[in-house]
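Budget justification note: compute hours in this period were largely spent on complex prediction jobs such as the one shown. Inputs:
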Amino acid sequence: MGKESLQSAIIKFAPLDKLLDLGRANSLWPMTFGLACCAIEMMATGASRFDLARFGAEVFRPSPRQCDVMIVAGTISKKMAPAVQTLYDQMPEPKWVIAMGNCAISGGPFVFEGQYGIVEGADKLFPVDVFIPGCPPRPEALIEGILELEEKVTGHRRWPRVEAV
Amino acid sequence: MNDLARSPNQETFVLNLGPQHPATHGVLRVKLTMDGEYIVDAEPVLGYVHRMHEKMGENRTWVQFMPNTARLDYLGALSYNHGYVKVVEQAMGLEVPERAEYLRVITVELNRIASHLLWFGAFVLDLGGFTPLLYAFDDREHILDLLESVTGSRLTFCYYRFGGLCNDVDDDFLTGTRAFIKRLRKRLPDYHNLVTKNIILINRLKDVGVLSAEMCRKYGATGPVLRGSGVDYDVRKNEPYSVYPELDFEVPVYSEGDSMARYMVRMDEIDQCLRIVEQALDKLPEGPVMAEKVPKILKPAAGDYYGAVEAARGTFGIRIVSDGTNIPYRMKLRSPTFSNLSLYGEASRGLLLPDALALMGSLDLVIPEIDR
Amino acid sequence: MLSELKSEFASLAPLAVIETDYKVKGYHLDVEVGPDRVVDAAELLDRLGFFLEAITGVDWLGKNPVGNQPDPVSVNEQDPEAAEAEGEAGSDAPADKMEVVYDYNRTDGVLCRVVVRCRLDRAKPELPTVSRLIPGADWHERETHDFFGIIFTGHHDLSPLLLPEDADFHPLRKDFKA
Amino acid sequence: MSGYFKELFGGTKSLFVGLGITFKYMIKPVVTVQYPHETLVMPPRFRGHIELVGDEETGAPKCVVCGMCQKACPTNCITLTGEKPEGGKKKVLTGYILNFTTCSLCGLCVESCKFDAITFSRDYNLAGPRKDAYIFDLKKRLEEKSG
Amino acid sequence: MTLTEPWRVLAFLVGIIAFVALNAAYLVWLERKVAGHIQGRIGPKEVGPFGLLQPLADGIKLMSKQLLVPKGVDPLLFKVAPLLVLVPAVMSFVTIPFGENLVARNIDIGLLMIFAFASVNVMGLLLGGWGSNNKYAVISAARAVSQNVAYEIPMLITVVTMIMLTSTMNLNEMVIQQGGGILNWHFFANPLMPFAFLIFFVCALAETNRAPFDLGEAESELIAGFHTEYSGMGFGVFFMGEYANIIIGCSLAVILFLGGWQSPFEFLSDQGLWGVFWFLAKVYFLIFCVMWIRWTYPRTTLWGLLNLSWKILIPISLLILLLTGAMIKVWPLITGAS
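Corresponding output:
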């Protein structure tokens, strides 16, 4: 459903597209969709110390119809996979996915020989745009992930890169 | 409460408080059969974040299971580390030095305050107030900084070892903790004035989701849920372990059994935890943090052992069955919210939808701990 | 408290009643009963004001249950020794057991944890449900059924609790292959 | 009837007290650390992904390929390859691959290493568009760092 | 600058729609800034200076979003509902006097027209909730209707009291009567007026599903209330409608009680464009209070909400109506006679 990319307009309005991308990049509304421990770090990022609101991303919409980015924060179990797939399909285009934490990237610490319960990585269900490793990653890593997504949407990065000291 | 024994052909509809819902704080699904806005029957459906902890307990060595215990209830992870370490030390008969026990109590109680603060914010968020969550998170960040400077991680700690701790504590942790205690004691009256005394909140919580002591006993509910219904049961007092007997603190008990009582129990527990941390800081002895002769490869004697610890949400019990090798034979994790939630079906019958969510919020659920 | 309990349990013809050392084992009394006596034990403890803490399933494939023989002086210990001897010899010897352990505890300040153990034949693990008496056991039993396939007769709904709805495998059995 | 009025006035009083508190916090300074512009300093014991420690003088990794960390890791994220040069008797490290995406940052590997060859790095803000960027080759990273 | 007829209508039309659109955008910005600072954080900052371009970015994103019409949805109701919320709000700006002679149509029954449109707004919520084939939306629609009906009555009783006091329904006329300094405002006309103002303000809050009464759009219970199924601009129009209704509610409160475009100081009352400044200053102060209340209180219970209206607000507003009526009739007799 919706595999063809949206931008294949016949007449390419470069400045208009750039404006649309800029608008979309600066108001990414995430979905309140916390699975496990990383959800608490996602809430901490929305809280007052790290404050996602500065990037216009603090409107955590509960309904998938009104969000742009799905932050998969936690372990996707096999029982939860169809629900996550439905949520992804319910989101209107253009939509993005951030895989936050090792569990969403590759099953994290719950991968062992003969495991029966979890999907090893969100990219087995739908295309993922930004990966944030860590168990759980610090709130700054999630903000870095959102800046990474904005760089992917607009094509250039407006914020300084921070070297871990 | 109200007469729901309507004629059988009253058309009820099934509402899915789906796996993704802001009020479930995780992936719990509750199948609600509703008659208008009243709940006829509620059936929680679990397993959406089942992470096979007990299966993993059977294919890794005793010390390698440590990170798993922290990922059960990541809000009060240190109590789970403490429970696991305590039951293995009990089985091996290991002696833990005094300083390590005191540091364990200090870090567990700080973690309990952080867990109660997050519950306080999330609970008032369920009731519609957004701001207290941000104030609670602000305080919680201070605790996470303290614990991160000692253990290295913010949420999923792996700090305790069998026989002690993996490294000692430096001085600015101690001064930082005292400063934090002063700061939180100044802010708690604000929380009470903003939320506890608020007439809207009182109307929302008074006589909502009343749990009798008998129903709690029948379902095996423990922790603040049980203490909210008038039963004075706290593992730290009933089965004294670690250095809790040397520290004096009360266990808050309210007998009304409604959501307001459970709310007040947890808010008073924050004060008690502050008292415990303060006393433990004063009595902190010098000395090593790790027992001397801890065997490299741990092999507890064959047999099964049970250990219980007071986690933030209730009694966390671990039943380990060892067959003498260094791989555990069976690891049963008794999580408190599993039993606390099992009474939800019966307790929420006849409630309105917002009251049923207030009841669920007052049970303080962490879903990965229920699904294990 | 313990003496009163032991006398009460005497009427249930338990297979083994052992007083264990709380400091090491974590519980005070370890009672092993047959599958048919489980409901009576639950009813007795419920009457005395205990609450059910947990139900644990253990799969003893190819091993003999080590549960309740901490100190060799326990009261009647015939069958485990016998099982020990020929357990090693036969491959899937009849000794294979599936064990269900009930933990009971008190909340009124008297520190007394009682463990009720019941051993079932691994091929057809079946025992009556206690969820009619103690509603809290409902989910514990469904979960034990999920992981071990132990059938609790009389349970109103033994569908998978933690595993996906259509799960027909029992992951915590020792011979489970993913 | 008196309960009705008492509750009414007590209630409205609590409402205005609540407004006062939020106003007090509105005037208080903001606690935000504006991440890309201002950053927090990580405590010394912060647990980022593990990294090899280079010898002071030669800069070569201290690791002697004993494999203790590989055995200690609960989720076997570390794969070690080393081979013994013909003359010398000590093994030399040729590859140290860390699959950080399955690591749970428990610290058992750092503890099990007797030669202090690995420590926790201080990378707290990793994020990127590619998944395999987080299967680190620690030997190459050490060489780049000591450069 | 008196414009001739067709140009005057065009100018006011453009003015009102620009006022509503700009306000809807920048009230969202103001709300997020106020919420931020109450909670000790900053709010939108990186998008343009002080985050001023944030509403622009939100607008562009919402407009360029895919407009999903889910299967099983009643197509007509689903599409009409957001308009039913926005259009009445915009149209009731026609009779609101922004300045001395700055009013689109100075109709004699301006107040009645505004309340006629206010009731259409409820239809929007109901049809939106019912049309989107979503159980949560149906529950929230039922709640929103019962809440609006419950709070329409005390609001109208208070308005009847004010009409009795000023013996006119023409909004501009009402404001002129409150001329000459702060003491002539109706707020200070007689000791009951502060209570009437409080009741009117609480009803305005409940009417627009805001603050402690947001049971219609209860985020933490009913996912997103009646606009659960709306994506992109459908949700955007609902948002604009909500903020337009808030402005209407606050400006009515200002006109009825706080002296519309009259300046609070005696000597400063030589009008001109100053009237607009005073009017907007008062309206924005009330809007700030609405936001301040929203970020302080939890949500009330449904029966608590209805009890508040039927058992507390209606009796008191009836009492005020009677007492004001008595004061108007009896007071001049006493003072006049003696």
